């Protein structure tokens, strides 16, 4: 149906301008009910969108700052692949202190999502010790030696508790103000070992000890290699994963 679905948020709903950063989705600022919002149109399944929108509403209720889904006129949280969410202001983290605030927010996310079900169709890094595919991961497309290196890195996480991870806490997906840290763009969120989020922060902002940081950094590099294979970035990430 495309952007015609926006009419389900009201007769005055309209697109304003495109936003950068969307790879798998078409993302625009929109106006709904007289207020600025963000619309995201993509090809995710209804089950996937139900998982994501349910998570965001829960995190909002628990006090995290996240984009909150705005219902259609008949109460649905998405329609025909379109999700409309609250617009958030702020700037990216810049200083070590900023990144420590981000680490604290990610730990709050992990604390709040004990026992959360896996995103439909996704696998965790430790699931991929035994499975070959999951969402964008297809280990069969990677060289066998690369798969062995990735699995050796993930094996070091085996047995650890899993939580919802944001999956892509880069500066474009973080909006800071003086009093809060907002996490946006939850496309890569799924259930996994929290260390995968914390390893992505520059300067070891999460304060992991040397061994924990090494385990997390290796597992994170292996995950990014597998999920993006085989572009130049994924090959660079695989090169960071030590040989078995």
From TrEMBL:
Top-rank taxon, per record: Bacteria
Residue span, Aminoglycoside phosphotransferase domain: 16-223
Family matches, as Pfam families: APH (PF01636)
Gene3D superfamilies: 3.90.1200.10, Phosphorylase Kinase, domain 1
Protein name from the UniProt record: Phosphotransferase
Organism: Dactylosporangium aurantiacum
